[in-house]
Amino acid sequence: MKDLRRYLVLKYIQYLVLSSSNAVSTFLGLLGSLYTIIILQSAKVSSKSTVVLISSLAKADILVSVSIVSEMVVWAFDVGTSSTAFTSALLQNLLTANTHISCLLLSCVAFEAYLITFFPTESRHLRTVKNARLTSRIIWILVIAECALFQTDDLLMASSTSAPTQSPCILLSHFPSTAAALLRSLSYFLGILLRIVNVYIYYKIFFSMSNR
């Protein structure tokens, strides 16, 4: 559990403290996720709701690995310009999906820590493995749908630049573009809100433990 706590601290720094990811934090995050996945295979680790959330958090870095490997393949084989634009948009959307999944899962872990600290008995029926798995699935589904919308918007935008002004592609691109713009704005404000909520939760937990 100490290793899992260190991993959570690393992820909190990577996604909720740093304003943006860098090469060092990304590399350390990938190593931490790989190590965590290995640890979770051990029979010594009991199946708890927090462990389920941490496992899903570690698996989210698979999106980062796919993005990095794909970028290396594109660079190595010198793919054409149009394919490169498509791939670049896809890789960026995968990184965005990874960030959003990680932030939401970290917030779920923080909320569970809050319930354990202040409402240990009352929240026991909520803090179950079944609910943790359901929460993880919902987060993955929602974020993957968001990623698909962003990718569709990027594809339609790329098509509209090479199409005539009155082309149906331009007319079709209005709705996905508007939805994607609204979703990006919502994600930005949600990210700020999650940072504030996480700071507040751990502030309350820290002073509660100190008073005890």
Describe the 3D structure.
The protein has helices at 2-17, 23-40, 49-59, 62-77, 81-118, 129-161, 168-211. It is mainly alpha-helical and 212 residues long. The chain has one domain. The chain is globular. Its main location: membrane. This is CXCR3 protein.
In short:
With 212 residues, this protein is mostly helical. It has helices spanning 2-17, 23-40, 49-59, 62-77, 81-118, 129-161, 168-211.
Derived from helix and strand composition plus strand pairing, the structural class reads mainly alpha
Could you spell the SSE succession in H and E letters? Answer: HHHHHHH
* Mean pLDDT metric: 85
Q: What is the radius of gyration computed over CA atoms, rounded to a whole number of angstroms? A: 20 Å
Number of domains: 1
Q: Helical content, roughly? A: over 70%
